[in-house]
Amino acid sequence: xxxxxNKIKWIRSLEQKKVRREERxxxxxxxxxxxxxxxxxxxxxxxxxxxxxxxxxTLQADEIDxxxxxxxxxxxLLKAPQHVIAIFDQRTExxxxxxxxxxxxxxxxxVQDPGNLGTIIRIADWFGIEHIFCSQGTVDxxxxxxxxxxxxxxxxxxxxxxxxxxxxxxxxxxxxxxxTFLDGKNIYDQPLxxxxxxxxxNEGNGITAEVRKLINRTLYIPNYPIGxxxxxxxxxxxxxxxxxxxxxxxx
Amino acid sequence: xxxxxNKIKWIRSLEQKKVRREERxxxxxxxxxxxxxxxxxxxxxxxxxxxxxxxxxTLQADEIDxxxxxxxxxxxLLKAPQHVIAIFDQRTExxxxxxxxxxxxxxxxxVQDPGNLGTIIRIADWFGIEHIFCSQGTVDxxxxxxxxxxxxxxxxxxxxxxxxxxxxxxxxxxxxxxxTFLDGKNIYDQPLxxxxxxxxxNEGNGITAEVRKLINRTLYIPNYPIGxxxxxxxxxxxxxxxxxxxxxxxx
Lengths: 251, 251
Prior knowledge:
- By secondary structure, chain A is an alpha/beta fold.
- The first copy, chain A, is built from 11 helices and 10 strands.
- The radius of gyration of chain A is 20 Å and the shape is elongated.
C-alpha cells in the first residue's frame, strides 16, 4: 500500500509534543536509525521502499506500507528524507532513584537544544551511562530532531523526566551529586566516584539555583593556559563529554 | 538613519558563500557576539537600537544606522533577532606552516556541519589552540550559522583554508600528526606532544584516505566498558573536545 493521506497527516502531527504525549509514539527516519531502534521499541507503523523491505524479511511492525521514495519524501519531517520512516511506541521507563547509588548517571537541568540532547544521549551511550534524569523543562527526547541526533543511542539509554530538585533531594546525603561551574574545583585534582549523578545545566543559564543547592561536589574543566582570555563557557554537550570521559578514564 | 532596503538586501545576500567570498565580509548578530568581535575585525556596517548605540559611544564602524527592533528583524538572518546586526571584514590570515612545530594546532578534513565547526572553534579557544587548518571542503567559517555558533571565539582563533593533503605533506617528518580512528591506540596510554597537528574528519566519512596516509600517530577514545555494544562513533566536535582536553591535561 502507498502511504495514505491520513498516515502523512499522522506523521506530520507528531512534530508536536502534545500529540506525541497523547499518543505516546514518536517518528524515526532512515535505515540506520530505524535498524538500531527495531527490537528496542515496539514499531506501530513503517513505510519503506520495496528494496528496504526485501532486505528486512523478519521485520515486526503493526502495519507496513511499501512506498516510493517520492511518497516517503512527502511524509518526511527531514530536509533529506531517506528510504524508510517509522512510528514507534514511546518506552514506559521505570524510574528507580536507587540506580544512582550503583551507577554513574546524568541529570539535565533544562537543556533546551534538541541537537545538544541528542549528542548527550550519544555521549552517555559511548561511556556506558544508562540513565539520564531530565527536568520537566528539558527538551522532549521524542522530538524528531532529538531522535535523529541520537543516531540510535536512544535504544540503550533511558531518559526519565522528573521534578529535578525534588528528585535529587530524595537522594541519600552520601550520594555524590556533581555539577560543573566556572567557580568549581579543577576536575583533574578531584576524586571522582564510580556512582552518583553528574548534573548539566541549561545552555544560557546553567544549573538552576534550586538544583545548585543540592550539588555536593562542584567541578570545573580548566581552560588552557589557565587564566587566559577565552570563551566564557563550553557548549553543554562538550562539557558533558569531557566530564564523562574523565570519570571513565579514572576507572 | 533606518536600515535601507539596499542594506537589507546586502545583509541577506551574505548568506551566500559566493557573495561573502567576493566582498570578503561576513554578518554577525547579537550584542554579545558583536561586542566580542569589535576590535578584532574591522566593522564595515552596524545597525543597532538607540539604546545599544548609547551604551557603545566609542564604537568604530564605517557606517552606523540607528534602527528599531522591527527593522533589525527584517534584516536579520536569525530566527530570534537581537538588538544589533553588523557586517565585518573577513580577516586575511597569514598561513605559516611552522606554527605546527611550536604549538598544538587542529586540522579539519571536510567538516560539513556549521554547528560542529562553530563548536570546534569554541573548543580550540577554550584550550588555547590558535590555528585551525581546514580542507577546502570544510564548511565556510564565515557562514552566518558558524559565526553565531562560535560565540565570539572567532576573535581569537585563526582559520586557514588549505589543500590539506599537500599542506600536511610539507610538514617535517618528525612533526606529530594525530588522528582519531576506531582502530587507533587508546589515547590514555599514548604519549601526547605539546606541538603538532590533531586531524579531525568529516561527520559521516571520517578522515579522507589521502590525509590518513599522512597521520603518524593514531588515537582512539575508548568507550566504556570497553567492548560493550555502543554508538558507532562520537560526534566530531565531541571527539575534538575530549582529545584536546586530554592533550592539555598532560601539560
